[in-house]
Specification:
heterodimer, A: alpha+beta, B: about 230 residues, alpha/beta, 10 strands
């Protein structure tokens, strides 16, 4: 008789029966957006870490030059910077490696002789790296049209892109959260209108506003929690599915489409946060409405 | 306990349904409220159980001027007032037991005490076999008794009843009036709006009479005058 007793029969409202499903759908979108933001953050960090601590030097090819002459120029360039403070390792990238890097864009059957593909020297940095001005001066002295890429521009663009995408993900989460809050507010107002006569009786027998609000907020939080659980579960299944597809595609970039344990825990917090937001929204709506009653 | 001074009341922008109402109910008093249909009995009760604000005048309940009482203090005042509504206002989704227990639960009473007191009271009003019945399955008289039980369960300081015997036979009506008198002897002030002439005659309490929105106090009971006023 006492257990699960409520003074206001909010659970049998036709108007709120769809509420868990609507919340589930919105939480599903929010879950994907959040997971997307987390993955982008992870990818950006991995890429950035991969690029930091290295330099790439491009040695342009002269079509009239023989391989031997090109190799000599490369050897001279390496000799010019060898031993500089801040350089841990210098490596000349083999033609086959360069071809492999270009495969996604140019296909497997590349004829290096037909394309002016520059030769690449990779430098692994030690600590903060060498004095860039000195490095540039030494290399230009040997090969005037040499290109030094410290990945700064690439990194900045990458970080900007990732930040923009993360912002989009956050905005989506925010919009979904606001829309969810508005839905809860309207559902609560509907409940207040539907059960007005009961609320009047409760008021007249001495129920405080907080007592009445508690019934709405409890119902709203449980409803939102149920819906959010559903949304997160389906969102999680989708993320796992996408991760599986990405892994099967192969490649370094797509294989990062997975979440770590902390990120999964973060997603699992969504139902609790949703329930909390629903509870506060319902409470505020009821208290505001009851203030207008005597 | 209750003091009205030059109180007027209107609904929205309509005409005043109560005008210049001035009276005083002392603690432990017992009054009937009479008047023809539409005279303003229910409106007067609404002012007393804080369901409506007056359009003018002063209302003081339990020595507190309602104009200065903050909203947050209203529940405490309402908890000291038991109300039997003319249309019962039972909550259809609740059992008889839960309807009667509602004021105690709202007040945060212990469930063991609630069970004991509610069961006893429902037995007293003859509804011991209907503890788990829903209002929809009860007769008009049974609903009325549930409504009365709900109004008196928390031993209010003031009991306001709007036609509490309208749907019960005379024997039950007399029993209910005895219950009200018993409550009155325990210190509850009672005001009963009724058309039941035989009850007014039998129980010999002062009568507040409303006529076209204006109130007069009649005492002792005058049957001939009552008949003239209620025809």
């Amino acid at each position: 008789m006492i257990a699960k007793r409520t003074d206001i029969p909010l659970g049998v409202d036709g108007s709120t029966k769809m509420l868990p499903w609507i919340i589930a759908f919105m939480v599903y979108i929010a879950t994907l957006a959040m997971a997307g933001g987390m993955i982008l953050s992870e990818v950006a960090q991995t890429w950035s870490e991969g690029l930091t601590g290295s330099l790439t030097i491009q040695v342009p090819i002269d079509p009239d030059e023989t391989d031997r002459e090109t190799n000599k120029r490369i050897t001279n360039a390496i000799a010019a910077i060898d031993g500089m403070a801040g350089i841990a390792k210098i490596n000349v990238m083999a033609q086959s490696e360069i071809q492999h890097l270009l495969e996604p864009w140019l296909g497997q059957n590349i004829d290096p002789a037909s394309l002016p593909i520059p030769r690449l020297i990779t430098i692994v940095l030690d600590g903060d790296g060498p004095n860039m001005e000195e490095l540039h001066r030494r290399l230009v002295a040997v090969i005037p049209d040499i290109v030094i890429d410290d990945h700064q521009l690439w990194q900045e663009r990458l970080v900007s892109l990732m930040e923009a995408l993360q912002l989009v993900a956050m905005v989506i989460v925010l919009i979904v959260g606001m829309a969810g809050t508005i839905i809860v507010v309207f559902a609560t107002r509907g409940g207040l209108a539907t059960h007005r006569s009961i609320i009047e009786v409760l008021h007249l027998i001495g129920a405080r506003d907080s007592y009445i609000a508690k019934q709405f907020q409890t119902h709203a939080s449980f409803t939102a929690f149920r819906g959010a659980i559903l949304g997160v579960v389906f969102g999680g299944i989708t993320i796992l599915g996408l991760g599986y597809v990405a892994n099967s595609l192969g490649g370094d970039m797509v294989s990062q489409f997975v979440l770590n344990i902390w990120q999964w825990l973060g997603l699992m917090a969504i139902p609790f946060i949703t329930a909390g937001i629903a509870m506060l929204s319902a409470r505020r709506t009821v208290i505001t409405a009851l203030k207008r009653m005597m | 306990m209750i003091r009205f001074e030059n109180v007027g009341m209107r609904y929205g922008v309509g005409p005043e349904v109560l005008r210049d109402i001035t009276f005083r109910l002392e603690p432990g008093s017992f009054h009937f409220l009479t008047g023809a249909s539409g005279a303003g009995k229910s409106s007067l009760l609404k002012l007393m159980y804080l369901a409506h604000r007056p359009s003018r005048g002063l209302i003081s309940i339990f020595e507190r001027d309602l104009a200065t009482v903050p909203k947050v203090a209203m529940p405490d005042i309402r908890r000291r007032i038991g109300v039997v509504f003319q249309d019962f206002r039972l909550l259809d989704h609740m059992t008889t037991f839960d309807n009667v227990a509602l004021p105690l639960r709202v007040n945060g009473a212990d469930e063991v005490l609630i069970k004991k007191h509610v069961s006893e009271l429902l037995a007293w009003v003859g509804l011991a076999d209907h503890l788990n019945a829903r209002p929809a399955t009860l007769s008009g008289g049974q609903k009325q008794r549930v409504a009365i039980a709900r109004a008196v369960i928390s031993r209010p300081s003031l009991l306001l009843a709007d036609e509490p015997t309208g749907n019960v036979d005379n024997d039950i009506a007399v029993r209910l009036l005895y219950l009200f008198e018993e409550l009155n002897r325990m210190g509850t002030s009672i005001l009963i709006a009724t058309h039941n002439e035989s009850l007014i005659k039998r129980f010999q309490h002062p009568v507040l009479h409303l006529d076209d929105g204006q109130l007069s106090l009649q005492q002792p009971y005058d049957l001939e005058q009552f008949n003239r006023q209620n025809t």
